[in-house]
Amino acid sequence: MSIHAYTSCSYSYLNRARVLFSSLRRQHPDWILWLVITDKKPEGFTLDIDKEDFNCLLTAEELFGEDTDRWLFGHDIVEACTGVKGEAMLHILNDPTCDKLMYFDPDIAVFNPMTDVVNYLDDYSIVLTPHQTDPDDADHQTALHDNEIASLNYGIFNLGFIAVADDDEGRRFAQWWTDRLRDWCHDRLDIGVFVDQKWCNLVPCFFDRVLVLRDPGYNVASWNLSQRVMSYDKEGTALINDRPLRFYHFTKLGPVGDTMTQRYAVDNIEIYELWWWYRQEVIAYTANDIPKGWWFYGTFDNGEKIPKPVREMYRSRKDLRKAFNKPFVTGKGSFYEWLLAHTDTLTNPQHRGFEAV
Could you tell me the end-to-end alpha-carbon distance of the chain, in angstroms, rounded to an integer? Predict the structure, then answer.
């Protein structure tokens, strides 16, 4: 039996996934690593798995079969790449060699072995990491808003990481999570849903053998930097609050990430050095023949971008999903033609102009 790990992304995030897999391979050369890709390759790009640090490639088409186009059309890129995580978890757990399974977001890098989590899965079926493990100062209103209030809005646990054991309770969770993500992996804060995260607020209520891992060395990111300090010991081991830094979540690479890092890392120079290293790694792993922001499913087949209200309309109406099982296709008798004839959502995407039935 073996340890498996996976991530999920589009080709525009392949560079980040490569950094993740490279870091995992250094720490755990014997693990089986999976890339779940919810995309199709851009013309001219070739992916040679033999030259990659991951072992297996899994596509949305393999997970959703003939329903792939209908399911994907109802999701934007974040919803889609998140929504496949449940189906992929079940698929990988069905691999006869999989004993324990971990998911990592593609914008994570691992700096010390994950052996503790491997061992925890002997006694627990599910391991979750909360966004925060220590409260902020009540007088620090900005931190309360960015961290604790944000967790109340977006989810207590950060689902950039989750670990499950291949046991009855782990599989029961995987099936429940898959069912919820198949139908409800939406960015709908107005109804209390934020893709996969807020569903997992319910995990400690619904399932047994759940470990809430409060070690500060896990899932370090801007949302908990106010309570975590990075340093190195005399052997050069990266530490967070004197505990080994297991993995860092490099969320929002760019101006937003820089702003949040400066706000909470303050003068912790080691954090800035870590971000510098990550930027260089992402650049090194970037394929120039993948267009920036590429996502095959972001447009109709005529190249026109699909407005989010159109996606929301399609997923909310069973009659449309039944009538148009190839929603990306344009031309006579297509969903695209129907939209032009019956709505103004293509010319005026701010106007939803539909009723769910």
Answer: 47
φ/ψ of residue 190, rounded to 5: -65, -25
Residues 240, 274: Cα–Cα separation, whole Å: 12
The three-state (H, E, C) secondary structure of the chain, written as one string: CEEEEEEEECHHHHHHHHHHHHHHHHHCCCCEEEEEECCCCCCCCCCCHHHCCCCEEEEHHHHHHHHHHHHHHCCCHHHHHHHHHHHHHHHHHCCCCEEEEEEECCCEEECCCCHHHHHHCCCCCEEEEECCCCCCCCCCHHHHHHHHHHHHHHCCEEEEEEEEECCHHHHHHHHHHHHHHHHHCCEEHHHCEECCCHHHHHHHHHCCCEEECCCCCCCECCCCHHHCCEEECCCCCEEECCEECCEEECCCCCHHHHHHHHHHHCCCHHHHHHHHHHHHHHHHCCCCCCCCCCCHHHECCCCCECCHHHHHHHHHCHHHHHHCCCCCCCCCCCHHHHHHHHCCCCCCCCCCCCCCC
pLDDT in tens, 39-90: 999 999 999 999 999 999 999 999 999 999 999 999 999 999 999 999 999 9
pLDDT, position 139: 66
Query: Quick one: pLDDT band at residue 95, thresholds 50, 70, 90?
Result: very high
* Per-residue pLDDT reduced to its tens digit, 189-232: 999 999 999 999 999 999 999 999 999 999 999 999 999 999 99
pLDDT of residue 56: 97
Give the start-to-end residue ranges of the domains of the chain: 2-284, 300-342
CATH of 2-284, one of 2.60.40.10, 3.90.550.10, 3.40.630.40, 3.10.450.320: 3.90.550.10
What is the percent of the chain where pLDDT is above 90?
Answer: 88
The torsion of the CA quartet 253, 37, 175, 214, rounded to 10 degrees, works out to -30
pTM beyond 0.70: yes
